[in-house]
Amino acid sequence: MLFRASSIVLLLLCSGFLLGIKPVNYTLAALLVVWTVVSIRGMVSMRSQVFGRVYWRGGGERKTVALTFDDGPHAPYTAQVLDVLKAHGVSATFFVIGANLKANPELARRIHAEGHEFGNHTYSHPWMFRMLFNSIKEDIVLCQDEIERVAGVRPRFFRQPIGMNNPSVMKVIDEMGMVMVGWQVRAYDAVRVDKADIVTRILGGVKPGGIILLHDGCDGKAPCDRAATVLALSEIIPALKASGYEFVKVSELIGVENRQGPCALR
User: Fold this and answer.
1) Catalytic-labelled residue, pool 74, 116, 125, 215
2) Residue 247 φ then ψ, to 5°
3) What DSSP letter does each residue of 164-184 carry, written as one string?
4) Which residue of 6, 69, 116, 140 has the fewest C-beta atoms within 10 A of its own C-beta?
5) In the annotation, is 139 catalytic?
6) Are 192 and 214 in contact (CB under 8 A)?
7) Catalytic site includes residue 70
8) Which of 70, 71, 139, 189 is catalytic?
9) Beta strands in 76-216, from DSSP E residues, in sequence order
10) Higher pLDDT residue, 105 or 28?
11) Which CATH class for the 54-254 domain?
12) Quick check: 68 and 250 in contact, CB under 8 A?
């Protein structure tokens, strides 16, 4: 809403500038700078509400957190993550890539059977700034279809690949009755391979109500090694529990049902 309103104002001022209304010039320049800064902030921050509502934490100061995993399911790491979660009695939310799910249906069924929940992370993990509006929607729907085919559910939660948002994606998921889920702290474990770095970043950055982002798989465009994430998870969970934190799924943390309703458009 903020992005749309500021864009309309900017368009009106541009019209005044083209009509030669001199007082508009300075106002236009100032607003253009503000609009650019706000737009960049909206693109690079998955906490920003510029393009629409993004859930990145729960409300209140209760010591609860939600573990989320991107880019799976992927062998052998998703199974190892599930083993760690099961050993500690923790539920999580898995933002799956449709193509990976199709290649590893047994892992997806295990995620569902063990009480975790799914989120949509697109079918092909594309760089969405390069995609047309209809192509974005098609990729999201393909992932929804694959999740439903394998696990029998159509999640409402969506997370943008690459961690960069844009208004086209927000419009698509809004039309589909879905919601954007960001994060409060991430480990950059898609590029980090050191267990200690991952542990330090998560434990040092997490706050009550936070959504934690880790990776149990890859997008297929680079070599995949999530062994450090698995090892780090075995330290992160007991450390946070010892500090009084309780682990819940994203749906429980933010109080939003994770099931796509009949308003969804194909």
Assistant:
1) 215
2) -95, 130
3) ---HHHHHHHHHTT-EEE--S
4) 6
5) no
6) no
7) yes
8) 70
9) 93-96, 117-120, 157-158, 179-181, 185-186, 211-215
10) 105
11) alpha beta
12) yes
